């Protein structure tokens, strides 16, 4: 392609040089005609008795000095007074003369006695304005060609130098491209791009590729869905994506991360990050995202079932103890005491069960409250359910209620254990104007005004960071999941600081609920 362009450019340069040479010849001959036509010597000779004798040596000297091919002075009837070939003197001039007879100098290309030439022809005018003679000055095309031939080495040389530079540049550019593409040509790159696009949109995990400046270079459809990105974020910095602060900080660090849990918007994400290196230098990071929102909800339900089973196990253990005590009282002959002891324990447990079942129509939530009551009792915390608690069917997914209430109660029980006796947790729930109100209050040390803004951040906790929850990812996730579930259901959550923290949750019910 470089060679073709250079050849075409050289041909254009040649044609342009040829046209320029002809234009220069026209300008030069016209100037000479003008100069001779106004010469008093020429005017006097043309109107005198011996024009050839005077003009021939004069115009030949001018022709030699100017390098023109011929200068012919002739009469209006075409009779030549001068000519480079003396044998042509006295003959008839060949060429167009009508514009010159009309008093105008003009140029043309005409074939005369010396061959094709570029000539200018003009009038010689006396004092009365009469045309008394004509002058024609010409340069043959062969002479123009000779001048052009002398300039050809420069044109061809320039073309060859351009070709050499262009070829060298092309070779260097091709070499660099080959090195950058690892030796792959256009077909291989096109095929690789097709495979890459297919894989990018087929994987079920979110994929995010960042460069060394923490700008997004690649993102697939799943990553855009998980991070709630409406448009293509390519080229934007991670700080411009609207991510949670902890997730944005992890992406900025570009350190290796394995299965780190982050709460982003309404989703729980498991994030893996692997730094990318090229030629020993940092080239960014590859980030994969997995959606664990549904799994977290199922885990919450499993925790509630596990807590309920643990409650049943504890009650079975206590029932065994009570049974042994009752049998021993009977064996000691204290039957009345045995009856009172057995019925008192049964009545207490039944009252709690009846109150929860009557007040809460959501079976999963009722089971969760019973389980948490048993768990709190085992851990030395009294879980008090407010007598005004009344929750009919809300239409809110049971898994969401388990996530919200379960994490709030777990957090409250842990907080109560950190306080002084008596250790209590208060729970209340009711429906007011189609809004489910939930209140959880503990007797723990509470929160300060400075701690309240951070309480729902993932990873933030007032507990010992080395204290891990069994089977969980660590502390600082429960309240973040509560905030995420509340936002997902269009509700709000507030915290009251001070000794004995209180969490207040408001959730719109899915169907209108009638309350008496």
From TrEMBL:
GO CC entries: plasma membrane
Enzyme Commission number(s) from the entry: 2.7.13.3
Reactions accelerated catalytically: ATP + protein L-histidine = ADP + protein N-phospho-L-histidine
Location(s) in or outside the cell: Cell membrane
Molecular function GO terms recorded: ATP binding; phosphorelay sensor kinase activity
Source species, domain of life: Bacteria
Domain Histidine kinase: 314-511
Top-rank EC class of the record's enzyme: transferase
Keyword line: ATP-binding, Cell membrane, Kinase, Membrane, Nucleotide-binding, Phosphoprotein, Transferase, Transmembrane, Transmembrane helix, Two-component regulatory system
Keyword hit for Transmembrane: yes
A Pfam family this chain is assigned to: HATPase_c
Membrane topology field: Multi-pass membrane protein
InterPro entries: HATPase_C_sf (IPR036890), HATPase_dom (IPR003594), His_kinase_dom (IPR005467), PAS (IPR000014), PAS-like_dom_sf (IPR035965), sCache_3 (IPR033463), Sensor-like_sf (IPR029151), Sig_transdc_His_kin-like_C (IPR004358)
Record protein name field: histidine kinase
Organism (species): Blastococcus saxobsidens
């Amino acid at each position: 392609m470089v060679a073709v362009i250079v050849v075409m450019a050289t041909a254009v340069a040649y044609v342009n040089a040829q046209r320029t040479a002809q234009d220069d010849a026209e300008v030069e001959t016209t100037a000479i005609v003008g100069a001779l036509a106004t010469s008093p010597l020429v005017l006097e000779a043309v109107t005198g008795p011996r024009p050839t004798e005077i003009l021939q040596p004069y115009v030949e000297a001018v022709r030699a000095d100017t390098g023109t091919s011929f200068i012919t002075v002739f009469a209006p009837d075409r009779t030549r007074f001068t000519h480079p070939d003396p044998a042509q003197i006295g003959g008839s001039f060949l060429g167009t003369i009508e514009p010159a007879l009309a008093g105008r100098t003009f140029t043309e290309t005409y074939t005369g006695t010396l061959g094709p030439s570029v000539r200018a022809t003009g009038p010689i005018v006396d004092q009365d304005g009469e045309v008394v003679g004509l002058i024609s000055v010409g340069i043959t095309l062969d002479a123009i060609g000779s001048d052009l031939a002398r300039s050809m080495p420069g044109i061809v040389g320039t073309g060859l130098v351009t070709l050499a530079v262009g070829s060298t540049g092309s070779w260097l550019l091709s070499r660099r491209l080959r090195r950058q593409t690892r030796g792959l040509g256009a077909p291989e790159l096109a095929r690789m791009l097709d495979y890459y696009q297919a894989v990018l949109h087929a994987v079920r995990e979110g994929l995010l590729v960042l460069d060394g400046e923490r700008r997004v270079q690649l993102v697939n459809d799943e990553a855009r869905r998980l991070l709630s990105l409406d448009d293509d974020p390519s080229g934007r910095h991670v700080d411009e994506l609207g991510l949670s602060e902890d997730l944005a900080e992890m992406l900025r660090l570009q350190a290796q991360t394995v299965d780190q849990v982050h709460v982003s918007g309404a989703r729980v994400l498991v994030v893996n990050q692997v730094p990318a290196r090229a030629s020993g230098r940092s080239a960014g990071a590859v980030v994969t995202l997995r959606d664990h929102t549904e799994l977290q909800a199922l885990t919450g339900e499993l925790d509630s079932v596990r807590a309920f089973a643990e409650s049943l196990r504890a009650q079975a253990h206590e029932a065994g103890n009570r049974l042994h005590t009752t049998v021993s009282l009977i064996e000691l002959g204290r039957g009345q005491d045995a009856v009172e002891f057995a019925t008192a324990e049964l009545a207490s447990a039944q009252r709690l069960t009846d109150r929860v079942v009557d007040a809460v129509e959501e079976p999963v939530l009722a089971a969760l409250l019973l389980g948490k009551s048993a768990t709190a009792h085992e851990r030395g915390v009294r879980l008090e359910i407010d007598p005004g608690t009344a929750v009919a069917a809300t239409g809110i997914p049971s898994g969401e209620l388990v996530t919200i209430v379960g994490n709030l109660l777990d957090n409250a029980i842990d907080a109560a254990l950190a306080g002084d006796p008596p250790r209590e947790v208060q729970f209340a729930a009711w429906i007011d104007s189609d809004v489910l109100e939930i209140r959880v209050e503990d007797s723990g040390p509470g929160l300060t005004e400075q701690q309240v803004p951070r309480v729902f951040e993932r990873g933030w906790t007032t507990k010992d960071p080395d204290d891990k929850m069994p089977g969980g990812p660590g502390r600082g996730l429960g309240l973040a999941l509560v905030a995420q579930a509340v936002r997902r259901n269009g509700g709000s959550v507030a915290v009251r600081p001070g000794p004995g923290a209180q969490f207040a949750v408001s959730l719109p019910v899915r169907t209108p609920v009638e309350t008496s």
